[in-house]
């Protein structure tokens, strides 16, 4: 349940159930890059869709076909989870 609330809050500018549960400045801080990675996927995998990957406060950011994406994932012995968002995309 907590992951679901966190994901909904991330997708709704920090709001859950009509209440602000994450300050906007905190959300913005999770998108700020801290560790940049080289663009090697095109050379090693043959595709260039994801560029300029960087890791910040628990989330990765990158450019996917020209749009900012943010993503997070985890691998545990029993399952894998990953979610992607497009924070600057305002279309439904």
Please give a structural write-up.
By secondary structure, this protein is α+β, with helices and mostly antiparallel strands. 24% of the residues lie in helices and 35% in strands. It contains three helices and seven strands, in the order H-E-E-H-E-H-E-E-E-E. The protein has a five-stranded antiparallel beta sheet with strand order 3-4-5-6-7, with no helix packed on it. A two-stranded antiparallel sheet has the order 1-2. The longest helix is centred in the first third of the chain and has 10 residues.
Detail the topology: elements first, then pairings.
Elements (H helix, E strand, L loop, with lengths): L1 H10 L3 E2 L2 E2 L3 H7 L4 E2 L4 H5 L4 E6 L4 E5 L2 E9 L4 E6 L7
Antiparallel strand pairs: 1-2, 3-4, 4-5, 5-6, 6-7
Give the radius of gyration: 15 Å
Strand order of the largest sheet: 3-4-5-6-7
What percentage of residues falls in helices of 4 or more residues?
Answer: 10-25%
Main sheet overview: 5 strands, antiparallel
Total E-strand runs? 7
Uncertain runs are none
Shape: globular
Secondary-structure element order, N to C: HEEHEHEEEE
How would you state the average pLDDT, rounded?
Answer: 78
- What class would the helix/strand composition place it in? alpha+beta
The number of distinct helices, counting runs of at least 4 residues, comes to 3
End-to-end separation: 24 Å
Share in β-strands: 25-35%
């Amino acid at each position: 349940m907590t992951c679901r609330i966190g994901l909904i809050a991330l997708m709704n500018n920090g709001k859950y159930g009509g209440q602000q549960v994450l300050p906007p400045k905190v959300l913005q801080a999770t998108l700020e890059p801290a560790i940049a990675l080289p663009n090697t996927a095109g050379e090693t995998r043959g595709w260039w869709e994801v560029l300029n990957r960087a890791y910040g406060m628990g989330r990765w950011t990158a450019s996917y076909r020209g749009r900012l994406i943010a993503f997070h994932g985890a691998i545990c012995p029993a399952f894998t989870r990953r979610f992607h968002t497009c924070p600057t995309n305002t279309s439904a």
